[in-house]
Amino acid sequence: MKYNILEIIGIALSATLSLTSISNGAFCQVHTSPDFKKTVISRDFLSEGVAVADLNKDGQLDIVAGYYWFEAPDWKRHEIAPSQIFDPRKEYSNSFLNLGMDVNLDGWDDVVIIDYPGTPAYWFENPKIESSNWQKHIIADSVGISIESPGFIDIDGDGRLDILSGDYENRQIVWLQAPTQPGETVWKRFALSEENVPGTDRFSHGLGFGDINGDKFNDVVISEGWFEGKGDKKSGDWIFHAVKVSEPAAHMQVLDVNGDQKNDVLSSSAHALGIWWQEQLADGSFETHLISEITAQTHATIMADLDGDGKEEWITGKRYLAHNGNDAGDADTPYLLYYKIAPGKGPFFEEHIIDNDSGAGLNIAVEDLNKDRKPDIIIANKNGIFLFENQMK
């Protein structure tokens, strides 16, 4: 039996639902959550990427949305470089994913902006003074950044986030290493795969990083299969295993969902309807199990321990007006939600609706902004920019 999750629409978010069902052998219980305090930072469409960083070194984390940053604690808007407010029903922004980090290791946080797929990615150097003219550095041109959901991942284990993506010209899976020495400004490109491999088109969907085959090396997962990892992260010869993992997806999370000692995949539909887990079977194939059909266009996911129990929850949300209102369901209710996962025969999922008027963009930021030792959620998309302060007991 499968419940129609859309029945919950219209029920007040302060209520708690006790809806329980079975979907492809997986239990899913649905709750609405009063555990987050929502702050609307702006209703302007500035970016579908978002990040946090202490840009003015005052000890407080600020919010970055594209070419703008919002100063904590009052969220005063500042400009990083000339940009604009975009029309969510007619335009895409010039900022699809954001990251805040000290790129050149000078002690000041900088801003990384990944633009429209197939176009250059940049980082903007913190001027250390109030300015709207941050120095712009190219990370990679259209050769180095393809795929719609590149990942900010520490590939080499040096404690600094790198960029995992595709090379559109050579059709390779590559990673771009953040500078490792003070004063360096260039991100180094390293290939993981051979040329002309799947998952490297300009608008490819689905990318993850985790150990699929249990050999203790992280692999690269795409919707069409996985690249077998090895110790050498610069070899360019990772073997591709062609097997359907998922429909076109957003960020793919790799973990053992059902407790059988084999890692599975959590994925969500970037532009259609469905939130799923892909069970890794004994023969190396993957079986898709439906978790929820609450919303379409869940184009970003991230894992974080929201309730402090030592287990990470899976966070996603609707990319509101993903294609400017031209897709079925594009303008449906913009939910933001998370899932608790209890491994077992089911496995058992608890779906928690955080909000019904925000959604998510192309990446989600999770950081403790108010210093209460609880991770908060930060969103930017065509619906605006939002902060959700975690108030779980």
Describe, in plain words, how this protein is organized in 3D:
The chain is mainly beta. The strands form six sheets. Strands 19-18-17-16-20-21-22-23 form an eight-stranded mixed beta sheet, with no helix packed on it. The chain starts with 18 loop residues before the first strand and ends with a strand. The chain contains no helices and 30 strands.
Mean pLDDT across the residues is 91
Kindly estimate the percentage of residues that lie in beta strands according to DSSP.
35-45%
Give the structural class.
mainly beta
DSSP strand tally = 30
Q: Strand sequence of the main sheet, in spatial order?
A: 19-18-17-16-20-21-22-23
Helix content range: under 10%
* Helix-strand string: EEEEEEEEEEEEEEEEEEEEEEEEEEEEEE
The main pleated sheet reads as: 8 strands, mixed
Radius of gyration: 20 Å
Poorly predicted spans: 1-25
Number of helices: 0
- What is the first-to-last residue Cα distance? 33 Å
- Sum up the overall morphology in one term: globular
